[in-house]
Input
Amino acid sequence: MPPPATDRVIILDTTLRDGEQSPGAALNVSEKVEIAHVLEEMGVDVIEAGFPISSPGDFRAVQRISREIRNCTICGLTRANRTDIDAAVEALRGAACPRIHTGLGVSDVHIRFKLRITRDEALERGVEAVRYAKRFVDDVQYFAEDAGRAEPAYLHQVLEAVIAGGATVVNIPDTTGYTTPDEFGALIRGIVENVPNIHHATISVHCHDDLGMATANTLAGIRNGARQVEVTINGIGERAGNSSLEEVVMAIKTRHDHFGLETGINTQRIYPVSRLISQLTGIPVQPNKAIVGANAFAHSSGIHQDGVLKEPTTYEIINPRDVGVPDSEIILSARSGRAGLRHRLGELGYTLEEEQFEKLYQRFLYVADKKKTVDTRDLEAMVADEVQVFFEETYHLEHVQVSCGDHSIPTATVRIRGAEGQLFCDAAHGAGPVDAVYRAINRVIGEPNELVEFSVQAVTEGIDAVGRVTIRIQADEPVHENGVERRTFSGRGSDTDIVVASARAYLFALNRLIAARREEKG
Output
């Protein structure tokens, strides 16, 4: 097998496309644009910004990202038909480096049962789509969906034909997460050895984590000739998710002796970006998640602690600072003042405008008075609540008070400030304190919705820990003139009082719902 021509691995981030397909992870346009900017700053080569034909919101997101992001290739997904491709062309019109990503299934189960056509018809349709896309952009990527379960000879035939038709990148997905690393590595090696014109295209790999092998399969792919990897932040995505950017990038960097490859990622941005994606999507990062989990650089065993204190490399193969995790914990209190808070925020990678900082500082004093000391995770929760809000807030929670107990009716009173500064006050009772609060808020705002998920997590340890509440609500949204679509909106809130955090989270979700309706009308 001839060696690949380059030792540089291209990073295609599909957080905004495949990652957003995680249940409940719907993002608004402004949030997607913000994520695109931080991916650009991190050094991602290609941003798969969305599936333009799928919805007006996705179209607008791809359009805005194309106009604002200048240092990345911007990619739009399509099915292999002209209508989809035309929508992508229009959405990508302002991009400095546009790419159209089109394709079809190549496994018999996809061709026979999903597409309901023959192999020859699928091949012909795929080549025609590539040729049509090539009329508008130079960079065309072709996905051979479910390649992990396809007959190799047919897969090779398809790849040869689409490359001849103008494809510059061929994407080999393990769509169902079915293959093992040795099988997937052999699949890529077989493509290198058996597709005559493969040197005219870049081989890309896109692996899912259904059997927990997405990262291993991706790394096996690049060991055997792939030079583009398709990943998401925190590994979010359909079903069990995708290969995670942080795992793939740090494996390549940490084991350079094994892979001999490089990426263009600024790894010190990994942790802050991971936190941002978790906060905006409402999908928590599991504590034992590799690279970015809360426990990734924590040591509880006495033997481990002793070793790390003497020499960090005894139990840490990655320097925490290399991925943007502070290796020392600075505890803040109400006496720290603005300078101390601003310094710590800077260390964590947050640059705030004066108005944002003052808003955060007031929230910091409120928490510090209750909690006495404020650590990194508390600050991150506060920044998420007060600063990282990418929509116009219509209603603001001024006050919440509850009365409850085992022999009383849970009752809540809320005071909410409206967009014009007017104050609304109402009360309600419910099955519990949180239910009562939500009923009181509904009496003020009156937006029909259904609460479909409610979760509580302790941000930090101890009886005075800040609690984070994440919720999801569903509401019917008008689509075009006569249709109705059921949409999901996530909300988040944090406070030392879990009832207050619950109220903040619910109001956050309602404000997102109202902003989305305003955006659709506008």
In short: Confidence is low (pLDDT under 50) at residues 299-305.
